[in-house]
Design goal:
The complex is a heterodimer of chains A (276) and B (595). With 276 residues, chain A is mainly alpha-helical. In chain A, 75% of the residues lie in helices and 0% in strands. Chain A has one domain (31-275): MetI-like (MetI-like fold, Orthogonal Bundle). The longest helix of chain B is centred in the N-terminal third of the chain and has 18 residues, at 187-204. Chain B is an alpha/beta fold. Chain B starts with a helix and ends in a 12-residue tail after the last helix. Classes of the chains: A mainly alpha (276), B alpha/beta (595). Chain B: It is a peripheral membrane protein.
Chain lengths: 276, 595
């Protein structure tokens, strides 16, 4: 049985973790500045349609209308990353807040909040989506509202369980004796213990939401043409798959990369937390 | 017994030769055993005594042939009943385990299957209910036939351990391996279980390999004692030799640090300086060298081997043992403690009146009300030290938490006339520190709102850390980076950084090794005198209670059953429980042990 020298192995797992977490941060920065990096306007044709990649017209060539694929992909990645983060973070924050309050207070407050959570968990997703569509009208924004309403309870459950486990540890009694108020007790002695779980879940959710949004956009539920959306770009380019493969494949690869990085980062974080 | 050995030596049932075990965990090599040789003879109780990390439990696992798989190095030989338990074929090792070995561990609840009735679990090894009943009878389980239908959770801790022993002694077992089997039990139950081991050994001719951290427990039943230190055997000999005339400086230090009913209350306990060696460090000289008061250059020339003692029949791994044997064990005495001035004119620090607190356990038809506090009256004078003694579940910890204001009472009053809120030193000091905060943050927390500047607070933290013997450099360390002794010090520092008028101690030493426990008791006594604190000391150990307390209060089932000045309670106990607790202290007149 040959194993890697221990110190080296440890250093390597740590490196993988920082690599993945670092790439999450890098992608977010990239998403913010991507539109500035785009060489051309993503909505206007720049030359002949169907130009091949690495040729004279655009780095990744042009699409069926003659727009620069590189610029469209950059802006599309930026949009889907920011949209997923913009969807997951409020959901995670709200759910975690409910979980912390329920887990810390316990007693009837806990039972009441968890009853609400159970109510939302019991709602059938498909029917809720139909109801929201019926009331607010069918649109992407309303679909996202439906997703938000359905997913915060998972965070609430998760965080409540974590907080309750930490709250039963002796260090909480000691912290109370040290004269900490409720807010300080929660922020310094309880919440940091639940951070790992929240962080891992958020990261993994990011990957899921990216593919889901791309799927919705693929089905025509995203922003309308000519807005650069990775899902709709792939859908519009699909008829050219056999003749001009780069038009649908490049945006699809971009989606896969984003989701893959988020999932890898989540997994790496999780194994790092487990090791501690 | 030594004459027995001369006339008919039955030969060892198990023998260990030059056993070296190195584990690999979290990127570090842990040297669990650094070359150990010993024999277990048929019909003897061999007690293996050592602090945590000394390798005593690993030795037990090696005898069973069940070492963890994260081995880095494995050397030497372990033979049990003629079979090689380290490298022999798994089939042979399994046969030895099934036929010749029995094992009993600290927590019977996790060794028994919680989903099966006792009878079913016994049936697996006995093959008949009649045999199961006979076994249960033999280990003193009353009403054995009816007990076969019980689940493990329906039995008390003591009964569960008896069932485990019955399971372990089924068939033609020759060697019983017991790893801290009484540590989780109450002192009075502990004495009965120890008696059972002794009896089984005498009646069935079993060899018992008994692992314990407590020299007192070993003294109660062992024929021979092996003292382990830093993965090596420090001393091995008959109980009398090791306990009465210890020849290794470590054994001597352990003996001195042991609390008895004769320990001088006006002096500090003679504690061992320093801490046990870190298992991840390579040791080149005597493992005990850095803590030894008789350390000489010759001690650093390689790991010392066992050699026969000049004065007793024991063998000792100390190159200076012969020179040292001239120095009597009792010649060292601790420093005299300054007398604690009583403050008779002052009002009591805390007065508890008719405190009641009950819990409802279980649900529905099985719900039962437990009266944790059932009308407790108690007061602690300014500067006074009061010990509360009782078995687990007697309400002593509930009382402590109520006084600290962590638990509301059902009825009754607690009047606290102190300056700063009472602080608790918890049983598990490590767990009472928030793992993601630094020591500086944790200790400094109670200084917030004191009006001190940030710099003045940091200075106060450093001052307190020095006071408890921690380097102020550790202020930026997190609890996980510290040793057990350091965590204990940090927890105490946090409690006294703003000295409370009343310091509450919840069994602060019961989770610590002997040498660390003595250090902690000395530190508490010293801090109490320097800072002028009253103290409430909760324990199940009457020897510790006697040492710490000016008065002793004995609790049972949420009530105070006896109270009085310490000397009075120890000399003339009136309640049965007090007498039981006294008898549980090694070396007490009613005690059966060797020393």
């Amino acid at each position: 049985m040959r194993v890697l020298p221990s110190a080296g192995r440890r250093r390597m797992t740590r490196r993988v973790t920082w690599l993945s977490v670092g790439s999450l941060g890098a992608i977010t920065v990239f998403a913010v500045i991507a539109p500035l990096l785009a060489p051309y306007d993503a909505t206007l044709p720049i030359g002949i349609p169907l130009a091949a990649p690495f040729g004279d017209t655009g780095l990744f060539g042009t699409d069926q209308v003659g727009r620069d694929i590189l610029s469209r992909v950059l802006e599309g990645m930026s949009a889907s990353w920011l949209a997923s983060a913009g969807l997951v973070l409020p959901i995670a924050s709200f759910g975690s807040l409910v979980g912390v309050v329920a887990g810390y207070l316990g007693g009837w407050a806990d039972r009441a909040l968890m009853a609400v959570v159970d109510f939302f968990l019991a709602l059938p997703a498909a029917i809720l989506a139909v109801v929201i569509a019926a009331v607010l009208g069918p649109s992407l924004r309303n679909a996202l509202i439906a997703i938000g309403v359905l997913s915060w309870p998972y965070y609430a459950r998760l965080v409540r369980a974590e907080i309750r486990a930490i709250a039963s540890r002796p260090h909480i009694e000691a912290a109370k004796l040290a004269g900490n108020g409720h807010l300080r007790l929660v922020l310094r002695h309880l919440l940091p213990g639940a951070w790992p779980v929240i962080l891992v879940t958020v990261t993994l959710d990011l990957g899921g939401v990216i593919t889901m949004l791309a799927g919705l956009s693929f089905l025509g539920l995203g922003r309308p043409e000519p807005a650069p959306e990775l899902g709709s770009m792939a859908a519009q380019g699909l008829p050219y798959l056999l003749t001009h493969w780069w038009i649908p494949v490049i945006p699809a690869v971009a989606v896969t990369c984003l989701a893959l990085i988020a999932n890898l980062a989540g997994d790496a974080l999780r194994s790092q937390m487990k090791a501690q | 017994m030594s004459t027995d050995e001369l006339t008919s030596d039955p030969g060892p049932i198990a023998s260990v030769r030059d056993l070296v075990v190195t584990f690999h965990r979290d990127g570090a090599d842990l040297y669990a055993l650094r070359g150990v040789s010993l024999d277990v003879r048929a019909g003897e109780v061999l007690a293996v005594v050592g602090e945590s990390g000394s390798g005593k439990s690993v030795l037990g696992s090696a005898l069973i042939g069940l070492l963890p798989s994260n081995l880095r190095e494995l050397g030497g030989e372990v033979i049990v009943d003629g079979a090689d338990m380290l490298r022999g074929p798994e089939r042979v090792r399994r046969r030895v385990r099934r036929l010749s070995l029995g094992a009993v561990f600290q927590d019977p609840m996790s060794s028994l299957n919680p989903t099966q009735r006792i009878g079913r679990q016994l049936f697996e090894v006995t093959g008949s209910d009649d045999e199961s009943v006979r076994l249960l009878d033999a280990v003193g389980v009353p009403d054995a036939r009816r007990r076969l239908r019980s689940y493990p959770h329906e039995l008390s801790g003591g009964l569960r351990q008896r069932v485990m022993i019955a399971l372990a002694t089924a068939g033609d077992v020759k060697l019983l391996i017991a790893d801290e089997p009484t540590t989780a039990l109450d002192v009075s139950v502990q004495a009965q279980i120890l008696e059972l081991f002794r009896e089984l050994c005498d009646r069935l001719g079993l060899a018992v390999f008994f692992v314990t951290h407590d020299l007192g427990v070993a003294s109660e039943l062992a024929d021979r004692i092996v003292v382990m230190y830093g993965g090596r055997v420090a001393e091995v000999g008959t109980s009398r030799d090791v306990l009465v005339n210890p020849s290794h400086p470590y054994t001597r230090a352990l003996q001195r640090a042991r609390l008895t009913l004769e320990t001088d209350r006006a002096r500090e306990v003679v504690a061992l300086p320093g801490e046990p060696p870190d298992p991840s460090t390579v040791i080149r000289g005597c493992p005990f060298g850095p803590r030894c008061g008789h350390h000489a250059p010759a001690c650093d020339d390689g790991l010392p081997d066992l050699r026969p003692s000049a004065t007793t029949g024991a063998r000792t791994a100390c190159v200076r043992a012969d020179e040292l044997s001239a120095i009597p064990t009792g010649s060292l005495q601790g420093d005299t403690l300054a007398p604690m001035p009583g403050l008779p004119g002052r009002a009591p620090v805390v007065e508890v009146r008719q405190a009641r607190k009950s819990y409802v356990l279980g649900r529905g038809r099985q719900a039962a009300t437990v009266h944790a506090l059932d009308g407790v009256d108690l007061s602690v004078g300014a500067n006074e030290s009061l010990s509360i003694v009782g078995l687990s579940g007697c309400g002593k910890s509930t009382l402590l938490r109520a006084i600290a204001g962590l638990l509301p009472l059902d009825s009754g009053t607690i009047a606290y006339n102190g300056e700063s809120r009472p602080q608790i030193v918890f049983q598990d000091a490590g767990a009472s520190l928030t793992p993601w905060l630094t020591l500086g943050e944790l200790i400094g927390e109670r200084l917030r709102g004191s009006g001190l500047s940030k710099r003045a607070r940091a200075e106060a933290v450093a001052e307190t850390m020095r006071r408890v013997g921690l380097s102020p450099k550790l202020a930026s360390a997190k609890p996980g980076q510290l040793s057990g002794g350091q965590r204990q010090r940090a927890a105490i520092a946090r409690a006294v950084v703003v000295p409370p008028s009343l310091l509450l101690c919840d069994e602060p030493t019961s989770a610590l090794d002997v040498s660390l426990a003595a250090t902690a008791l000395n530190m508490l006594a010293e801090l109490r005198r320097e800072l002028g604190m009253a103290m409430l000391f909760v324990t199940h150990d009457l020897a510790a209670a006697r040492l710490v307390g000016d008065r002793i209060v004995v609790m049972e089932n949420g009530r105070i059953v006896e109270s009085g000045p310490t000397d009075e309670v120890v000399a003339r106990p009136r309640h049965d429980l007090t007498r039981q607790l006294l008898a549980a202290v090694p070396g007490s007149p009613s005690h059966r042990g060797v020393a």
